[in-house]
Amino acid sequence: MTQAEFIHGFSKLMANWGMPLTAGRVYAYLLLQPKAVSLDQIAAGLGISKASAWGAAKHLEQVGQIERYGEQGSKRSLFSATEDFARSLVRYSKLLSRIGGLLRDGAPGAEAEAAARMRERSGFYLTVHDAIEATIGELTTGQRRAAAE
């Protein structure tokens, strides 16, 4: 698989989760970079406009997938995929927990079938939340162990 095929495939998969296609392309591109890169480099590397790269970068920064750094002696920003992936998962975990809790509590006056459907969905969201929390714990424990070695 070439890097272009990886970027294309990755962005298509992320689009299925609601991520804008260009944001998926930018994220995949940044995952492939050994160090932080500028918007000019992102735009050139993907063959997109700088404005498209900026919009995608802003989105990815807001959802915690990438980080922005100032370049010493310049107003230019550099971007990289976040190193602390576990931290970026916390946001999703909290959201899943809130959705699960809301579904578990249900809507007052809901029909029995609707209430049962919400409880069923609640179990799914809360189970996924628990799995993410366990994974975060394992990742952070592994990172601490690696840093100590």
TrEMBL record:
Name of the protein: Transcriptional regulator
Domain of life: Bacteria
Keywords of this entry: DNA-binding, Transcription, Transcription regulation
InterPro entries, alphabetized: HTH-GbsR_regulator, WH-like_DNA-bd_sf, WH_DNA-bd_sf
